[in-house]
Specification:
The complex is a heterodimer of chains A (385) and B (80). Chain A is α+β, with helices and mostly antiparallel strands and 385 residues long. Chain A is 53% helix and 13% strand. Chain A folds into three domains: 106 residues, Acyl-CoA dehydrogenase/oxidase, N-terminal domain (Butyryl-Coa Dehydrogenase, subunit A, domain 1, Orthogonal Bundle); 104 residues, Butyryl-CoA Dehydrogenase, subunit A, domain 2 (Beta Barrel), CATH 2.40.110; 155 residues, Butyryl-CoA Dehydrogenase, subunit A, domain 3 (Up-down Bundle), CATH 1.20.140. Chain B is 44% helix and 0% strand. Classes of the chains: A alpha+beta (385), B mainly alpha (80). Chains A and B meet through helix 11 of A and helix 2 of B.
């Protein structure tokens, strides 16, 4: 049984809180605190923590199912959830020893919201290097981290922060450090007024503080060993699920509209209507197939760093971003100005369109295409994963 | 390692600085990413007259200067 169906009641609560406030959080660019409160109260934030630590025992497929459902209603909430799960999975798979013993039961309760601090001013979203130094003395690690974009940073209970390892001799010796909110001094250094994804409230922040030196996830300076098997795949799979869910929800609302209250404005024998619908549906089927296949490939691959698997994971991100935004664009064309362009429409396609415009920029497609071009040159046989 | 090999590597290692490149040096830590790795591959094939089979184009082959040199040596041995 999928955990998404096993957690149906919890999901319903989160969806109700999301639906009630989504219009406001988008308009005001405010974090969806009611949805987050519902996620904490229902414990679904612990979805990916193994049951022996009190968590939901869910896997990648469950993360995808939940994210798809949330995104049908609000892509910002879905993205917040998926990114939290990416952080949790990093802890589940890579924390060990006393740190794992402390963290996993806490995360398993599902009331701790974990935010990700990986962006830096000069390197953008590039994960594998850092310019922020951490100092280590007498068993503590001093953090001073300036991050231009921290999704949900104002509301997170704890953070996973990338920073240079204390003894680093190269900018690529990055550590992933866990820090609770009460271990840090947090300064919000600017506002958040974007085109879409407004409810993620991804503000610039400076985080300073001291944490016990054992709060490093995985080996110090070896964050790249977390990226290839966990951080990268979870990001691309989680984001793609959020984008597909948002486009799927929009198409569903349009179809209800055409079959119901909007009936008189559409002619079911119109070839233009039918071919547009078919193309939109086709884009969603393509992304869904690629998403499900990538999840299966990641779960069965002995080494996700292997070239063909890396290519597949990156291609999922690029294709999902392009196809889901393309689908939203065609949906606007299909329903026209009133329901496709006005904020007042109950179909809220205008919001989905703005939200999905971020997809190609959220870890830029251009950057991933360069990587994939280089990887493609490694595989003359073209072994498709 | 061939004395000239570190000099061949250097332009592809953005964090190499002026320190000598030892055979244990992690190429990732010296700044080799997947895009630079493919440029380095072409340079190696041109310089040493070898052709790296696809199955050797892994992170393990490119892990350290020494692992990469060993791969080149084994390929040269094959063609010799």
């Amino acid at each position: 049984m999928s955990t998404a169906t096993g957690h149906e009641k919890a999901l319903d609560e989160v969806l109700s809180a999301t639906a009630l406030h989504a219009e406001h959080t988008d308009a005001a660019a405010e974090f969806p605190t009611a949805a987050l409160d519902a996620m904490r109260a229902t414990g679904i934030l612990g979805l990916l923590v193994p049951t022996q630590h009190g968590g939901g025992g869910g896997g990648l497929g469950d993360l995808v199912d939940m994210t798809l459902r949330l995104a049908r209603v609000d892509m910002s909430v879905a993205l917040i959830f998926a990114m939290h799960c990416q952080q949790v999975m990093a802890v589940v798979r890579h924390a060990d020893g006393p740190l794992a013993e402390r963290l996993l039961p806490a995360l398993g309760k599902g009331n701790v919201y974990l935010a990700s601090v990986t962006t830096e001013r000069r390197k953008g979203g590039s994960l594998l290097s850092s310019e922020s130094t951490a100092r280590q003395d007498t068993g503590t690690l001093s953090i001073d981290r300036d991050a231009p974009i921290v999704t949900g940073g104002q509301h997170a209970d704890a953070f996973l922060i990338t920073t240079l390892a204390p003894e680093a001799t190269s900018p690529s010796q990055v550590s992933l450090v866990y820090a609770r909110r009460d271990q840090l001094t947090i300064e919000i250094r600017g506002g958040w007024q974007p085109l879409g994804m407004r409810a993620t409230q991804s503000v610039p922040m400076r985080l300073t503080g001291r944490v016990p030196a054992d709060q490093v996830i995985g080996a110090p300076g070896r964050f790249h060993e977390i990226v290839a098997p966990t951080f990268g795949p979870l990001a691309h799979i989680g984001w793609s699920a959020a984008w597909l869910g948002a486009a799927t929800g929009a198409l569903s609302r349009i179809l209800h509209h055409i079959r119901d209250t909007g009936r008189s404005q559409f002619d079911p024998s119109s070839e233009l209507l039918l071919t547009r619908l078919a193309r939109i549906r086709g884009r969603l089927d393509l992304v869904n197939a690629l998403l499900r296949h990538t999840v299966a490939a990641v779960q069965s691959a002995p080494d996700t760093a292997e070239t063909s698997t890396q290519l597949l994971i990156n291609n999922l991100k690029v294709q999902a971003a392009e196809q889901c935004f393309g689908a939203a664009d065609e949906m606007v064309e299909l329903v026209g100005l009133r329901h496709g362009y006005l904020r007042s429409s109950s179909l809220y396609l205008e919001r989905v369109f703005r939200d999905l415009r971020s997809a190609s920029l959220n870890y830029a497609n251009d950057r991933l295409l360069l990587v994939n071009g280089a990887l493609a040159l490694r595989d003359r046989q073209v072994n498709l994963a | 390692m061939d004395a000239a090999f570190p000099d061949l590597l250097k332009p592809f290692l953005k964090y190499a600085g002026t320190q000598p490149i030892t055979s244990e040096a992690s190429l990732h830590e010296l700044g080799l990413d997947s895009m630079r790795a493919i440029e380095l591959l072409f340079a190696i094939e041109d310089t040493y007259g070898v052709s790296m089979p696809d199955e050797l184009l892994t992170d393990r082959t490119f892990a350290t200067a020494g692992s990469l040199w060993d791969t080149i040596e084994s390929l040269r041995g094959r063609t010799a």
